[in-house]
Write a structure and sequence with these properties.
Layout (H helix, E strand, L loop, with lengths): L1 H23 L6 H20 L7 H15 L3 E3 L4 E4 L5 E12 L4 E14 L12 E14 H4 L2 H6 L7 E11 L5 E15 L4 E10 L2 E10 L6 E7 L4 E10 L2 E10 L2 E10 L2 E6 L2 E3 L2 E10 L3 E10 L11 H8 L8 E10 L9 E9 L2 E3 L4 E4 L3 E13 L2 E12 L2 H8 L11 E9 L4 E9 L2 E2 L2 H8 L9 H14 L3
Parallel strand pairs: 5-6, 17-18
Antiparallel strand pairs: 1-3, 2-3, 3-4, 4-5, 6-7, 7-8, 8-9, 9-10, 10-11, 11-12, 12-13, 13-14, 14-16, 15-16, 16-17, 18-19, 19-20, 19-21, 21-22, 22-23, 23-24, 24-25, 25-26
Helix pairs in contact: 1-2, 8-9
Length: about 500
């Protein structure tokens, strides 16, 4: 700033002396020089005007900014005494190391640490500091720490009118923690704008961020009208996922619709909610080319989901192609929560050709932090069925592992051998196969713990061949068929 003033003085002196020399030589001041002198003088006065807040007492600034942020922005921020004043890109106070405080009814605690807080000022009246007016708030490099109890306050906060002035949050993180304060997920905030839109009469929040390293955009609008209309939009380009949710509240009854589109699928849901229970049903939904119908009920606190799903004309083999994003989601630990209960039944009828299974019933249960698929069944109408029992899905030492019993029930062994193109010399009659195994989803490794055929243990040669299955891609039918035929050949019968 001193350099700016010094350069300005040199320019003024040169200009004035030049004008004086011309005057002494009976020359008039040109119109251009008059405008230049006026402009420079005005700029000089304006710069000095912008620098007036430098004269404000820092203790006064600290106290009054905290008061104004609470009254005008509805944010309780404890700011430090490390306050600097800047005039570019617009007049503002730059405050280091601040904290956002939250009163949860029991005590006031910090939920965010802010590295850089910028408080932008209106330029209307710097002469009277008591009339200091804050235009907007910019939060940079903040870390928000939220626990489950904090999330209960979100509906209360969104029901209140947002501040008319904008709050910007940039390059920050939200850390979601469980009850023992361990981090369960992180959302990176690239850019967020929050304010009350006077034109639309709505609370508005626009967020661009990342979750599980996947970028997404989130928009929230809550209209202050008679029916409390709420519109939520979410989309992620890498996932090719779009979510639109619209809801209204009348006389305590929440009703709405939710549309999810990803790839070539559309999941449309109508729902109603009352007394913490949500009832929902599908509305013309499709998963790729398959018709999808479902219904159920959901309780949020605690989380309890009861869901029944029906697929028609769906390719069952797709179920065995586990998506890496789904694995990352399971690894996050969100599902391994004692406060989550899920009871899901999925019935699938397949009319696809070259499918091993014609029908399937998949049971997915979460209870007391444990995940299992007991009584899940895959059926081939010509051969028999495979049923899962005593199953468990768990995440340990960075590995996602499934353990369970597979009961293979053969109704027609000749059809099985014909399907697998087994040599007649290798065909032995048997009815049941019981297998206990561990399957690691991350490295595609299978460990066979026990195998019984018709309630009898198999020989050592059979076990040796089984061990060779480790690391094989069992989704490749050609490889699986060769290995099974090799097993049949070694089976003594």
């Amino acid at each position: 700033m001193k350099q700016i003033i010094k350069n300005f003085n040199n320019l003024v002196k040169k200009t004035i002396f030049n004008v004086q020399n011309k005057t002494n030589n009976n020359f008039n001041i040109s119109l251009f020089n008059k405008y230049l002198i006026t402009f420079i003088a005005s700029l000089f006065i304006y710069l000095f005007y912008l620098l007036i807040p430098l004269l404000y007492d820092k203790n006064w600034i600290q106290t009054n900014i905290e008061k104004k942020l609470l009254s005008e922005f509805k944010v309780n921020i404890s700011i430090s005494s490390d306050i600097a004043y800047r005039i570019l890109p617009a007049p503002h106070f730059l405050i280091k190391d601040s904290k956002i405080l939250l009163d949860d009814g029991r005590k006031i605690k910090s939920i965010a640490e802010i590295k850089d807080l910028k408080v932008f000022l209106s330029q209307k009246n710097f002469f009277d500091k008591e009339k200091m007016n804050i235009k907007k708030l910019v939060i940079n490099d903040a870390n928000f720490s939220l626990q489950r109890n904090n999330l209960k306050l979100i509906p209360e906060l969104t029901n209140k009118k947002f501040p008319n002035k904008k709050i910007n949050i940039n390059n920050s993180n939200i850390f979601f923690k469980d009850n023992i304060k361990e981090i369960v997920s992180i959302i990176k905030i690239n850019k967020t704008v929050l304010f009350f839109d006077d034109e639309k009469k709505s609370n508005s929040l626009d967020l661009k961020g990342e979750a599980f390293n996947i970028p997404f955009t989130f928009n929230f609008n809550k209209y202050h009208d008679a029916i409390n209309h709420v519109i939520i939009k979410f989309w992620s380009k890498p996932l090719r996922l779009k979510i639109l949710n619209e809801s209204t509240i009348e006389k305590g009854l929440v009703s709405g619709k939710n549309n999810i589109s990803f790839l070539k699928s559309k999941i449309n849901t109508k729902y109603t909610s009352k007394e913490k229970l949500i009832y929902f049903v599908s509305n013309n939904s499709r998963l790729n080319s398959s018709e999808l119908n479902y219904s159920g009920k959901l309780s949020i606190n605690p989380f309890d989901l009861d869901l029944k799903v029906y697929f028609d004309n769906y390719k069952i083999s797709k179920l065995f192609n586990i998506n890496s994003i789904l694995i990352e989601f399971i690894k996050s630990g969100l599902l391994f929560n004692e406060n989550i209960s899920v009871n899901t039944s999925i019935i699938i009828n397949s009319n696809k050709r070259n499918e091993i299974f014609h029908n399937a019933k998949i049971n997915f249960h979460i209870m007391n932090g444990k995940i299992h698929f007991d009584k899940t069944k895959f059926i081939n109408n010509d051969i028999g069925s495979i049923q899962l029992n005593n199953s468990n899905l768990f995440y340990k030492n960075n590995d996602l592992v499934f353990n369970g019993n597979l009961l293979v029930d053969i109704k027609n062994s000749e059809n099985l051998f014909s399907f697998l193109k087994t040599n007649k010399s290798s065909r032995k009659d048997f009815k049941t196969v019981l297998i206990n195994l561990d399957y690691n989803f991350l490295n595609n490794n299978i460990k066979f713990n026990t195998i019984k055929i018709d309630n009898s243990d198999v020989n050592s040669q059979f076990l040796s061949i089984i061990d060779s299955l480790n690391g094989k891609d069992l989704n490749n039918f050609s490889i699986t068929r060769k290995l099974l035929n090799k097993l049949f050949k070694s089976y003594a019968g």
